Amino acid sequence: MASTEPTGAIARLMDELGNLPGIGPKSAERITHFLLASETKDVLALADALRDVVQKVHPCRQCCNLTEDELCNICSDGKRDPTLLCVVEQPRDLMSIERAGTYRGLYHVLQGRLAPLDGVGPEKLTIDALMHRVNQGGVKEIIMATNPTLEGDGTALYVSNLLAGTGVKITRLARGLPSGSVLEFANTQMLADAIEGRRVF
Ligand SMILES: [Zn+2]
Question: Are residues 156 and 187 in the same domain?
């Protein structure tokens, strides 16, 4: 009996879609059939968008946020306070804090968190770039806004220890955030409160 499993290009697309977060085999199949039934130009627009993000988007030279330019739109905004740095794990955390709408300083994106058991040590993060930035002077306060998880807290502690001799004030987001939750899913008011109520580390 011939197999009814898709093969070739269709199987490949389903496999690729199935690798995306939150997309199980059923959803991958549904999206694949949606695309197969769509106008060619619409599907190619999606393909172009995927190619563009891969080819054009890269880390900001200063803060490692994502940008298509040398500096991201936050670093190049002259109205932001350059004496205040908010250290986050990922660009999506930065976006969550930006959505809260109250923070007016700059950022530093670590591009991850320390996870020794997964082989993620300090050299895999942008900690050197952060130290270089701080050593250049001008930064007065650093808000550690890593996630309130075991690894996020460990990362905040590690970075804070490195910064200890620099004379920069170090604060941590207030625990309005439920422990173990991640910034990405916090609501905007919760994040605004956490920034307002930050405490000395
Ligand atoms: Zn930047």
Answer: yes
What is the pTM (predicted TM-score) of this model?
0.81
- Domain membership flag for residue 50: yes
What is the whole-number distance in angstroms between the Cα of residue 135 and the centre of ligand 1? 17
Ligand 1 centroid to Cα of residue 144, in Å, is 17
| Cα distance between residue 168 and residue 142, in whole Å | 7
pLDDT digit string (tens) for 105-145? 999 999 999 999 999 999 999 999 999 999 999 999 999 99
In angstroms, what is the span from residue 122 Cα to ligand 1's centroid? 20
Residues 114 and 183 in one domain: yes
Domain membership of residue 38 as a residue range: 8-56
CA of 71 to the centre of ligand 1 (A): 5
Distance of CA 16 from the midpoint of ligand 1 (Å): 31
Does 146 fall in a domain? yes
Two tokens, residue 10? 């269709």
Answer for the pair 111, 64: CB distance below 8 angstroms, yes or no: yes
